[in-house]
Design brief:
alpha+beta, 16% strand, single chain, globular, 115 residues, three-stranded antiparallel sheet
Length: 115
């Protein structure tokens, strides 16, 4: 299991959104040499995949976090972003040096633009 997220680093408005799931790293169906984050419902004893389009499979942040901390098979928590939200997500891969934390200049431009 991954370490618990740093709750204070997650904006309260996001934590208040009841669209949270737990996730687990699994091999990608299309690229077997890659891992992908598969979302799961954060309740119950049977592992059931969550849906990015079905709010019935989502939970509150608190419930998802507690489920993650209580279930070693999960790797983290994540928020589902949908059209009804005022949120935007940007995924920048391979842009940060893991040892130094330095961000690639092209990625920093993206971050600066969206702030």
């Amino acid at each position: 299991m991954s370490a618990a997220p740093i709750v204070a680093s997650i904006p309260r408005v996001m934590r208040e959104n009841p669209a949270w799931v737990v996730w687990r790293y699994e091999p990608s169906p299309s690229k077997l040499d890659k891992m992908t984050k598969v979302p799961y419902i954060a309740r119950g004893t049977v592992r059931q995949k969550a849906s990015s389009t079905d709010p019935a499979t989502w939970a509150t942040f608190r419930d998802a976090l507690e489920y993650h901390l209580d279930n070693e098979w999960t790797d983290g928590v994540g928020m589902v972003v949908c059209d009804a939200d005022d949120f935007v997500g940007i995924d920048l891969d391979h842009c940060r040096d893991a040892e130094t934390g330095a961000i690639e200049p092209w990625a920093q431009k993206v971050v600066d633009t969206i702030q």
